[in-house]
Design brief:
Blueprint lengths: L8 E6 L3 H10 L5 E6 L2 H10 L2 E7 L5 H12 L8 E6 L3 H10 L4 E5 L3 H86 L8 H32 L8 E4 H15 L5 E5 L4 E4 L1 H17 L6 E7 L5 E6 L32 H11 L3 E7 L3 E8 L6
Parallel strand pairs: 1-2, 1-3, 3-4, 4-5, 7-9
Antiparallel strand pairs: 6-8, 9-10, 10-12, 11-12
Helix pairs in contact: 5-6, 6-9, 7-8, 8-9
The structure holds adenosine-5'-diphosphate (ADP).
The site of adenosine-5'-diphosphate (ADP) has 21 residues, from α8 and α9.
Length: 398
């Protein structure tokens, strides 16, 4: 049966007489055997560095001590220490040589005159042994590769499981936060409706004075706005998660947009001074509705976390040629270690817990700005206030 080329094994024969080497080479001629011959210890050593041999046949009759020294060197090197060595020695000095051979690391002996059958069968035993151990090493390597792949798979599985667990926790927290955030305006409205039905039931129309009706409508509007905003935010988060947040660009004057938005805000937040400094002519292709949403988020944060101090909205050109929209407050400020995480969904700082919110505004805002090819960054010092800067490319390819 023919063997694959990879089954070819190498054999080293060392003898200082070239005619002996030729005779051995002729004797061992075989397709599956690659015989390398050396006439000196140095030559043998350089072959040993180059090849991986299954067996070395060392003549110790003529090369005398040189053969034994070579055996010692072979045993002494980590690369060749396990190479089986067969000493070829003269039959008449059998005992002395075998003894010394053993000391120097021989594993077997062949005696001269060489018997062709004995040489061949001995070489066959060692080459088979070599093949088997090579095969075993291959199997071990395959097993190791399979084990590593298995380990890798397990790591991936564990990671997926962790992610799943985290997603479940986020979902649970989200559900409880949504219920909480919806419950507040809903219970205010429910109480109001119950009160009004009671009054109507009793025919108490005097209760519905023009001032009271005015404040009722105002309150209803606020509760409805807060619930609508909550639902819009949740829809936006879902769109962002599915990569479906759409941007509809049109020519937009950023200064004008800022002035209108701040004017709308000022109607509802009469107690806090709101200022606008907007350069003229900052016009680009942006989704005005979405940019207004960003500004509303930043402004309402400035008002909620600004401790009643003035909030400034600026519009201009940044040094890098981008349009700049900045909202600066003089309130709580944000610790350096929190300045990145507030842009993640549901992240709220301890100081903000007392005011309503779901920790979605900045997450959505950053995504909207990024969808325009821009950036949203914060600069803040705890206790001194925060400045949120939006940078927008003037052209769509930015
Ligand atoms: P929300 O305000 O609804 O909690 P945001 O995503 O807008 O959600 O903000 C996340 C968190 O970042 C807030 O809860 C608050 O802790 C912090 N934060 C945002 N803006 C400011 C600000 N101007 N000053 C101080 N902290 C802020």
């Amino acid at each position: 049966m023919s063997r694959p080329a990879t089954d070819v094994v190498k054999l080293l024969i060392v003898d200082d007489l070239p005619e002996n080497l030729l005779a051995l080479q002729a004797l061992l001629r075989d397709d599956q055997l690659e015989v390398h011959a050396a006439t000196s210890g140095e030559q043998a050593l350089s072959l040993l560095l180059e090849h991986e041999f299954a067996l070395a046949l060392l003549d110790v009759q003529r090369s005398g001590m040189a053969g034994l020294e070579l055996a010692e060197l072979i045993r002494g090197s980590s690369r060749t220490m396990h190479l089986p060595i067969v000493f070829v020695s003269a039959a008449d000095r059998e005992h002395g040589c075998t003894f010394r051979g053993c000391e120097h690391g021989a594993v077997d002996f062949l005696f001269k005159p060489l018997d062709a059958y004995a040489v061949k069968s001995k070489v066959r035993v060692f080459t088979e042994l070599h093949r088997k151990s090579r095969e075993l090493r291959r199997h071990v390597a395959e097993l190791e590769a399979a084990r590593a792949a298995h380990e890798q798979l397990l790591t991936t599985l564990r990671k997926t499981e962790d992610e799943l667990q985290r997603a479940l926790t986020v979902r649970d927290e989200f559900m409880s936060m949504v219920s909480h955030e919806l419950r507040t305006p809903l219970s205010v409205m429910t109480l109001d409706v119950a009160m009004r039905s009671g009054k109507l039931g009793k025919g108490d129309f005097a209760y519905f004075s023009p001032e009271r009706l005015h404040s009722m409508v105002g309150r209803d509007g606020r509760q409805l706005r807060s619930m609508t905003r909550l639902i819009d935010d949740m829809l936006d988060v879902s769109r962002i998660q599915h990569g479906k947040l759409s941007i509809r660009r049109r020519r937009t004057d950023l200064g004008e947009l800022a002035r209108h938005t701040v004017a709308d805000f000022a109607v509802h937040y009469r107690d806090v001074p709101l200022h606008v400094q907007a350069a003229a002519g900052i016009v680009g292709d942006w989704d005005d509705g979405r940019i207004e949403q960003v500004l509303v988020n930043l402004l309402s944060n400035g008002l909620r976390y600004g401790q009643g101090k003035p909030v400034l909205v600026e519009v201009g050109m940044a040094a890098d040629g981008m349009a700049l929209l900045a909202v600066t407050d003089q309130g709580l400020g944000i610790e350096p270690q929190d300045q990145q995480r507030i842009f993640e969904q549901f992240e709220r700082l301890e100081a903000a817990r007392s005011s309503p919110g779901m920790g979605l505004g900045l997450f959505i805002s950053r995504d909207i700005v990024r969808a325009h090819g821009g950036s949203l960054q914060v600069h803040s010092r705890p206790g001194e206030g925060s400045r949120f800067e939006v940078r927008l490319p003037m052209t769509t390819e930015g």
